[in-house]
Amino acid sequence: MESCREAAAAECDEILRVLAEALPADRPDATAARLRAPVVATFMLTADGEASSFDSTLGRELAFSVHHAVHHHATIAAIAKHLEVAVPDGFGLAPSTQHHHLD
């Protein structure tokens, strides 16, 4: 995925398919319950190879993923602007920053 645009796009499509199946828009009560469902998030916090596990919820992990993606979007926007490639207004801005600009 890191070096093949087509593989990355295919993986994104698969993630969207799985999420749409797991969180059906036509069943908001089931979706809300699933978002509150407990999960265990496991990842490496240091380079020693040891993984740490934390209790969480599916909703919290999805929210974190969306929030963290803004960081990557900001980097992409900075590189694009440096290369004089247009990016959409607001791309890479955190929702809190966008909200602040509305005031």
Provide an overview of this structure.
57% of the residues lie in helices and 14% in strands. The protein is built from four helices and two strands; from the N terminus they run H-H-E-E-H-H. The mean pLDDT is 92. It has helices spanning 5-22, 28-35, 58-82, 95-102; strands at residues 38-44, 51-57. It folds into two domains: 1-35; 38-103, no CATH class. It has a two-stranded antiparallel ribbon. The protein is of the alpha+beta class and 103 residues long. The protein is globular, with a radius of gyration of 17 Å.
List the helices and strands and how they pair.
Blueprint lengths: L4 H18 L5 H8 L2 E7 L6 E7 H25 L12 H8 L1
Antiparallel strand pairs: 1-2
Supply database-style keywords:
single chain, alpha+beta, 14% strand
Q: Are there runs of 5+ residues with pLDDT below 50, and where?
A: none
The fraction of residues in strands falls at 5-15%
**Helix content, binned percent:** 55-70%
Instruction: State the domain count.
Output: 2
* Radius of gyration using CA atoms only: 17 Å
Biggest pleated-sheet summary = 2 strands, antiparallel
N/C terminus separation: 40 Å
Mean pLDDT: 92
Structural class: alpha+beta
Number of strands: 2
What's the helix count? 4
